[in-house]
């Protein structure tokens, strides 16, 4: 995975993801991005929730933005490209591109903060060096 070869997750648009016109509802794109993010993290031997000793850690979203370029429909098979747009001490911003047969259908960004979870409360903590190294392998040099 490099700036020229992003992680790709494939997904078929389910009937339950569509509105009465058969077009994927805007909320479906957020689920697709989340599924792709989880698959991306698994490919790096990481997870969205984990335990380190007695600590529970997670990546809650603090920002998400999506631009819709073209509609997708029931039964379309889309590819969701995932790359790291920005990596900070405690946060990562992902770039998502939803494509259908090579055409850009939607583009999105999502920022997640690495947090310790204690009794249901979140506190941001630095991303471990080994995770930084893995995430850096997917860092975009430029947004294409």
Automatic annotation (TrEMBL):
PANTHER family: 4-HYDROXYBENZOYL-COA THIOESTERASE FAMILY MEMBER, NOVEL THIOESTERASE SUPERFAMILY DOMAIN AND SAPOSIN A-TYPE DOMAIN CONTAINING PROTEIN (0610012H03RIK). Pfam families: 4HBT_2 (PF13279). Its EC number is 3.1.2.28. This is 1,4-dihydroxy-2-naphthoyl-CoA hydrolase. The lineage of its organism: Bacteria, Pseudomonadati, Planctomycetota, Planctomycetia, Kolteriales. Belongs to the 4-hydroxybenzoyl-CoA thioesterase family. InterPro entries: 4-hydroxybenzoyl-CoA_TE (IPR050563), HotDog_dom_sf (IPR029069). CDD domains: 4HBT.
């Amino acid at each position: 995975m490099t700036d020229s070869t992003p992680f790709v997750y494939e997904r078929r648009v389910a009937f339950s993801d569509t509105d009465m016109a058969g077009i994927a509802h805007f909320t479906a794109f957020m689920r697709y991005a989340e599924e792709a993010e989880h698959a991306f993290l698994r490919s790096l031997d990481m997870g969205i929730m984990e335990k380190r000793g007695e600590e529970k850690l997670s990546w809650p979203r603090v920002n998400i933005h999506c631009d819709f370029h073209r509609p997708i429909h029931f039964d379309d098979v889309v590819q969701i490209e995932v790359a790291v747009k920005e990596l900070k001490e405690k946060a990562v911003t992902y770039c998502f591109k939803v494509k259908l047969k090579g055409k850009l259908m939607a583009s999105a960004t999502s920022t997640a903060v690495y947090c310790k979870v204690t009794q249901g409360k979140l506190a941001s903590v630095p991303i471990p060096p080994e995770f930084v190294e893995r995430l850096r392998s997917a860092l975009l040099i430029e947004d294409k």
